Amino acid sequence: MGYALDLETWPRKATWLYFKDFDHPYFNICADMDVTHLLSHVKESHTSFFIASLYVSLRAANEIEPFRYRMKGGGVQVHDVVHGGSTVLNEDESFSFCYFNYSEDFEQFYCNAEQVLASFKAGEKNLNPKDDMEDVIHYSVLPWVSFTSFSHARRHNKTDSIPKIVFGGYRCEGGQTKMPVSVEVHHALMDGLHVGRYFQRFQELCNQFQR
Length: 211
Hints:
The chain has helices at residues 13-19, 36-45, 49-63, 106-121, 192-208, and strands at residues 2-4, 26-34, 69-72, 75-79, 83-89, 95-100, 136-142, 164-168, 171-173, 176-186. The protein is of the alpha+beta class.
């Protein structure tokens, strides 16, 4: 569910018109998030760091409205809520796509995510990218690399406006545990200001996290 954004009253209309027809209208920002508290909490409660990180990210993204914008029919669609689609590694080192419905209630989100991963582990390999699903954010996880930059494989399709977020491997530094997070978004729909707000909210949620 959602609604069409009123472009005539949107303060970013001129920016949208400028960037929407670029050959490559995406920009990417990578930043380190301090996940010390989040990691400590999930270890104590024997819960999944991946699911907790995904929840924190989706909650932050849902609270920052432009992360729910999508290019559609020559305009902009605003979704009421966006969910998560993530790559998950198979035992044979291929990967599948898994989809996680967002809920602001962490327990509900966690239970659903566990069920999705349990089905995946039971052998339901799935490389269905669900290209018609727009109320989603695409996720990847690279726990082997604490990267400083990231670039995505893309089709030449300027209407692909789904944000892409990647979690890297966390590392200890100066008594803190830091995890790189890459965010790639369509510049017609948002600016560095909005990605900065996402990172700020992500950090707040990590610091406040409590199951």
